[in-house]
Amino acid sequence: KKLPDDKSKKRNWLASVYAGPSFGINSKSNDELRSVSEKPSMQFSAEINRTLFAGYGLSTGFGFNQRQETFKLTNLQILDSAIVVNDSVPIYQNPQQPDTIIGWLDTTYYYDDTLSTDFTQLNRIQTISIPLYFSKHFSFTDQWGLLVNAGAVFQFNKYRTTQQTSMMLPAPTINNFSMNLTGRFHVTYTWNKWMFSAGVSTGWEMKQALMYEGLDRKRYFITPQLGFHFRF
């Protein structure tokens, strides 16, 4: 009896490792005196995928990320002195004739002298994550394809403040458990049981790890990645 060719064996499991820099994008809408920025950080994950039918499957695993956020609060002090500027604009009977001035429109502007001081707080967040993705691998040729993952990433967070310029800054509120909605798109190249990929993961932090007093922000992220995979 002829044994089946190794290439004809159906391999429904895919072990994967992903790594790449993550860039956080923070937007705010309620306060011009408060803002958050962050440095790029490295994102790592190890995952296992099970193909269920027609190339569709489920993926899960573990990930790790450590990022650094800077919270800035601008404090404005209004000083006692004020600058007053008077401005007079002529009113013409006939705008085409400069010598037909019939009056003046006086306007007074008041400017308060202000002293602006920026206070900053540096926070470091460590995250262990568990992704849960629906996946699909589209094969264009025997070697080339597209791996698509979409779903949620559940995060367990820990933070510490490493530096701040004033004790007047309140400590942020930490959500020990947070969640991202994520989509991942990778071009793949297959060689025997191995597959290599490159692409991007992007999404929205549905529940944020850190919440700052008086700041209503939205956080998005984009992560260029390389992936290494083994089919079995």
Count the E strands.
Answer: 11
Structural class: mainly beta
Whole-angstrom Rg: 29 Å
Order of helices and strands: EEEEEEEEEEE
Helicity range: under 10%
Name the overall outline.
elongated
Sheet bearing the most strands, described?
8 strands, antiparallel, barrel
The unreliable regions are 1-5
The N- and C-terminal alpha carbons lie at a distance of: 24 Å
| Average pLDDT reading | 88
> How are strands sequenced across the largest beta sheet?
1-3-4-5-6-8-9-11
SS element count, helices: 0
Beta-strand portion reads over 45%
Descriptive report:
The protein has 232 residues and is mainly β. The chain is built from no helices and 11 strands. An 8-stranded antiparallel barrel has the order 1-3-4-5-6-8-9-11. It has a two-stranded antiparallel ribbon with strand order 7-10. A hairpin with a 4-residue loop joins strand 5 (101-139) and strand 6 (144-164).
Helices and strands in order:
Elements: E1 13-28, E2 34-38, E3 41-53, E4 56-92, E5 101-139, E6 144-164, E7 173-174, E8 177-191, E9 194-207, E10 210-211, E11 217-231
Antiparallel strand pairs: 1-3, 1-11, 2-4, 3-4, 4-5, 5-6, 6-8, 7-10, 8-9, 9-11
